[in-house]
């Protein structure tokens, strides 16, 4: 009787999982197909390599693409070193006490804070208090703060997967703790660290709310790539074309093309993360 009940509950659980997964995939396919079918016609070499012209009603999206790339690089520069070092300290050096557990809980809670809150915080701290103004630097620092909890968490989880025996073996042959971490632990955990970093940066590249308050511009005449000035970015460019432009119907094809390019960029970043994980796992085997 218990065996039948257990089997029935397992069937119900698997059925529920398959149905919910199928619904999510179904609506995802509809959304992607809508964007591809309406945005593919706008994609061309000129669309990628030309700057917006005539109030963004003509031209391409080169300026938002360059802004997004530079912003993502700044985000990586501000978040990766500090996030990895924090994770190394928490996992390798910090004692397992109430303070460390509180810090870990705070970091995980920060991962759930809405991105618009980070945008308001960046506005208050970087734009106003530090007087950086609305600029790419302020936006990069804001996205760096948003990315930190994810990088710290994924890096620490990657470090936790390394067996303690690996560390003990390195220490037993005379290596110092720093040498053990640098030459043994980090290389072994590199696939998980890089995967988490790339996925975090792909999320940051698609954020709109944090850059809305800290430096994204509606329109820049020219390249506008200086990091101490306002900039154009794909997510904000798409938002403005879709909701705030004075000729929404006229620029709708450009909006769909921008959405498709943004999806392709995020997809390529995620694909890079999976490739890194596959490559390192293959080398480990």
From TrEMBL:
Its main location: membrane. Keywords: Cell membrane, Membrane, Transmembrane, Transmembrane helix, Transport. CDD domains: TM_PBP2. The keyword Transferase does not apply. It is found in: Cell membrane. It comes from the Bacteria. It is a multi-pass membrane protein. The keyword Nucleotide-binding does not apply. InterPro entries: MetI-like (IPR000515), MetI-like_sf (IPR035906), Phosphate_PstA (IPR005672). Residues 65-273 form the ABC transmembrane type-1 domain. Pfam families: BPD_transp_1. The chain crosses the membrane at residues 12-36, 65-90, 110-129, 135-152, 184-205, 254-276. Belongs to the binding-protein-dependent transport system permease family. CysTW subfamily. NCBIfam families: 3a0107s02c. This is Phosphate transport system permease protein PstA. It comes from Sphingobacterium bovistauri.
């Amino acid at each position: 009787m218990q065996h039948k009940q257990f089997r029935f509950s397992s069937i119900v659980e698997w059925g529920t999982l398959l149905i919910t997964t199928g619904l999510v995939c179904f609506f995802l396919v509809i959304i992607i197909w809508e964007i591809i079918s309406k945005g593919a016609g706008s994609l061309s070499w000129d669309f990628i390599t030309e700057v917006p012209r005539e109030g963004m009603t003509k031209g391409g999206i080169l300026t938002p693409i360059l802004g997004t790339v530079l912003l993502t690089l700044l985000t990586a520069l501000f978040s990766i070193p500090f996030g990895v070092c924090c994770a190394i300290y928490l996992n390798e050096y910090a004692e397992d006490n109430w303070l460390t557990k509180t810090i870990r809980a705070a970091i995980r809670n920060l991962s759930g804070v809405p991105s618009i809150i980070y945008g308001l915080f960046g506005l208050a701290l970087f734009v106003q208090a530090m007087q950086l103004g609305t600029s790419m630097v302020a936006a990069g620092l804001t996205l760096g703060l948003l990315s930190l909890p994810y990088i710290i968490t994924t890096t620490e989880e990657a470090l936790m997967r390394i067996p303690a025996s690996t560390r003990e073996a390195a220490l037993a042959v005379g290596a110092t703790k720093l040498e053990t971490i640098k030459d043994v632990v980090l290389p072994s955990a590199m696939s998980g660290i890089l995967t988490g970093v790339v996925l975090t940066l792909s999320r940051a590249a698609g954020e709109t709310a944090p850059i809305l308050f800290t430096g994204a511009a509606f329109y820049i005449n020219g390249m506008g790539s200086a990091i101490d000035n306002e900039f154009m970015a794909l997510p904000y460019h798409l938002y403005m074309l879709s909701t705030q432009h004075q000729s929404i119907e006229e620029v709708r094809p450009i909006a769909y093309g921008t959405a498709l390019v943004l999806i392709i960029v995020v997809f390529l970043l995620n694909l890079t993360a999976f490739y890194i994980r596959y490559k390192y796992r293959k080398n480990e085997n």
